Amino acid sequence: MKAIIKPILQSLGYDLVRVPLPESHGRKLQELFDRFQINVVLDVGARHGEFAASLREIGFKGFIASFEPVSTNFQVLQANRGSDTNWQGFNMALGSQKTQLEINVTAGSAMSSFLKPNTYAKETFTEDSVVTRKEVVQVSTVADMLTEIRKRIPTPRCYLKLDTQGFDLEVFKGAVPVLDSVFALQSEVSMKPIYENMPPYMEAIKVYESHGFEVAGFFPVKHDEDGAVIEFDCVMLRRPKRT
Fold first, then answer.
1. What digits encode the pLDDT tens for the residues 42-101?
2. CA separation (Å) from 199 to 12, 208, 221, 239?
3. Which of 168, 209, 222, 226 has fewest C-beta within 10 Å?
4. Per-residue pLDDT band at 11 (split at 50, 70, 90)
5. Is residue 124 domain-resident?
6. How many CB atoms lie within 10 A of CB 128?
7. Radius of gyration over every alpha carbon of the chain, rounded to an integer in angstroms
8. pLDDT in the model for residue 18
9. Count of structural domains within the chain
10. For residue 111, what pLDDT is reported?
């Protein structure tokens, strides 16, 4: 099936590629997954499934639930997922409550967001930040989806990966009721916000810290033309209880 879908998607301007994790990031995840015996990854804002595919490359064999609301991105995700029965795709977003929301679909597939690109984004990413259309998408919560996942894995030990273009804190709010099952998380935070009303990186980190997580590593994602960091992945682990 993948052999049939791939040329079709390529004719539409998409490709099926695996983008490897930076070596330092991959090592950190392997260490965390081993330490906390992670058996479920919640891949929120999955786009084409690059992160999940990279986890398979570094040897993770547990269950992956990838959430991607944009229809065209989800088609590529499903093709990338192939015959991997332990990797499931969901054509939806996650947030703080169950609802429907309108998402801004941009020319660059990595920049689609519920938020609007700001002036800095338009100047820095030019055509990629242009909103080409809007889609109404289903939104659920981490808590609700974990209830479903528990039917398959009764005792999930989760890694929560967030890459939702400015919406990470909303997703995290929907995870608060089940944080006892989240042993580590990853959130893409911005040194230089690229969406309107996007929370500053220190505000986001303080929210995670207030719920018992502490920073394990920072991994740059985007740099500007002068080499300054625009966004980085912040990996955090659950703070151990002190006796």
1. 999 999 999 999 999 999 999 999 999 999 999 999 999 999 999 999 999 999 999 999
2. 35, 13, 17, 23
3. 226
4. very low
5. no
6. 15
7. 17
8. 41
9. 1
10. 95
Q: How far apart are CA 235 and CA 187, in angstroms?
A: 7
pLDDT greater at residue 51 or residue 7: 51
Residue 50 inside a domain? The answer is yes
Residue 79 domain-assigned (yes or no): yes
Residue type for position 205:
I
What's the rounded Cα separation, in Å, for the pair 175 and 184?
12
- The pLDDT of residue 110 is 93
Burial class (CB in 10 A: 0-12, 13-18, 19+), 165: buried
**C-beta of residue 170 within 8 angstroms of C-beta of residue 95:** yes
pLDDT digits (tens, 9 = 90+) for 198-214: 998 999 999 999 999 99
- Of 154, 108, 121, residue with least CA distance to 13: 108
Q: Give the CATH number, domain containing residue 203.
A: 3.40.50.150
Classify residue 100: in a domain, yes or no: no
Question: What integer best gives the mean pLDDT of the chain?
Answer: 90
> Using the 8-state DSSP alphabet, how is residue 128 labeled?
G
> Rounded to an integer, what distance in angstroms lies between the CA atom of residue 87 and that of residue 1?
16
Name the residue range of residue 35's domain: 2-91+142-238
pLDDT (0 to 100) of residue 96: 98
| Cβ pair 62, 41 in contact under 8 A | yes
- Write out the E strands in 32-180: 40-44, 63-67, 87-90, 93-94, 99-106, 131-140, 158-162
> Rounded to the nearest 5°, which phi and psi values hold at 205?
-65, -40
Q: Are 65 and 98 in contact (CB under 8 A)?
A: no
